[in-house]
Design brief:
Length: 389
């Protein structure tokens, strides 16, 4: 059996989604090493001025200009482009890390909710099993009354009917236990996972949540998207600046004529930027603008979702308080009075049993309301708080 914290730790070490996000971060960091580096030099080998016509045709030794050549060329992208490539690589790392933080948050949230669901489903199931056992004791009382002639024969079936109704409810809760256990097993990697200990007491600090909403993983991921889009824009602008290349070659000729060395510089001429570079720059600027608007929209959506979740939390807290202070005590008092009346012969067994069932349903409902409050607290704290991988 796993405590709440142990389940989170196990999920953090076993969830395949986290391992995939870690691999993505490693890939981005490794790729950033090559960003902005000079291209590899180019080696060229050839024969220049080979005669194919005239008296020296196909006799290179008789042609003084024929030579075997070997050369090296090195390209030098403009500094702005190299800086932009480095910026883009850093933005890619930021995007991967932000995605990892979102994955960590999702795994922690799913694990916390699965643990909470399993914990409360088992408690509700135990509550119904306790009622089922008490109905068995009541069945013995009815049997004794039937033997003494103080009860009607039809009353012998009333406890069994109630136990059948309780059995249907148990079947539903058993299915909820299996489902929650399957979810928790998927996240922790333990096929026989179970819960132990008490659920965490998660406080909902509204002011802290409001202040820190900008640092939540999902908004951080949107910030990374903005940085990546801006880096692509800078790279597109850098394409308007010319790149240049330096080449040198050595030519070996017949010893009678002497060897030769050539050195050259070539520069790109972006003369048609209006139809080539400028449209790409405009496209990248539009993408950056889209990313900025998406980020602003994401913050509004997250703020609205926080307000909605806080409203649900307040509602479920009031419902839980109502169940604890009013509904369960009243149902318990009514069940006690009806059972006392039944023992005194003043109330029929069916009415007494219905009061007992109402008490059990009230207690199970109170546990369900407590589970709703716990789920709300988990969702709020694990969705709107900063999470680092």
């Amino acid at each position: 059996p796993m405590t709440f914290e142990r389940a989170l730790e196990q999920a953090a070490s076993q969830a395949p989604a986290l391992k995939a996000s870690e691999a993505s971060v490693r890939a981005s960091r490794s790729g950033a090493i090559a960003a902005g580096q000079l291209p590899d030099p180019t080696l060229s080998v050839g024969i220049d001025n080979f005669p194919i016509s005239g008296p020296p045709a196909f006799r290179p030794r008789e042609e003084g200009m024929t030579m075997a050549r070997i050369g090296v060329e090195q390209a030098f992208p403009n500094p702005a482009k190299r800086r932009a490539e480095q910026t883009r690589a850093r933005a890619a790392i930021g995007t991967a890390e932000a995605g990892q933080a979102v994955t960590v948050q999702d795994v922690r949230l799913e694990t916390a909710l699965a643990w909470t669901d399993l914990y409360y489903a088992k408690r509700r199931l135990a509550q119904l099993q306790h009622l089922d056992a008490s109905l068995g004791d009541l069945q013995a009382t009815v049997t004794a009354r039937l033997a003494s002639g103080s009860a009607r024969p039809s009353q012998a079936y009333e406890p069994e009917q109630l136990r059948a109704a309780v059995s249907d409810r148990q079947a539903q809760l058993e299915a909820e236990v299996v489902k929650a256990q399957a979810r928790l097993a998927r996240l922790t990697g333990d096929p026989n996972v179970d819960v132990s200990g008490d659920p965490p007491l998660l406080a909902v600090d509204r002011e802290r949540l409001r202040r820190g909403i900008g640092a939540t993983p999902r908004l951080t991921a949107l910030d990374a998207d903005v940085a990546a889009a801006e880096a692509e824009t800078d790279l597109a602008r850098a394409a308007k600046r010319p790149d240049w290349r330096v080449s040198t070659s050595y030519g070996r000729r017949d010893p009678a004529y002497g060897d030769m060395v050539s050195v050259g510089v070539s520069i790109d001429l972006p003369l048609f930027s209006r139809k080539r570079q400028d449209p790409l720059i405009a496209a990248r600027e539009a993408e950056a603008e889209r990313a900025r608007f998406s980020r602003a929209s994401g913050e509004r959506d997250l703020d609205a979702a926080l307000s909605s979740d806080l409203a649900d939390y307040d509602m479920h807290r009031r419902q839980l308080d109502n169940a604890r202070t009013t509904l369960v005590p009243l149902a318990k008092r009514r069940a006690e009075l009806d059972m006392a009346s039944y023992a005194a012969g003043k109330l029929d067994l069916g009415s007494a049993l219905l009061s007992s069932l109402a008490l059990a349903e009230a207690e199970v409902d109170a546990l369900a309301r407590e589970a709703d409050v716990a789920r709300d607290a988990v969702r709020i704290n694990y969705t709107y708080m900063e999470v680092r991988p």
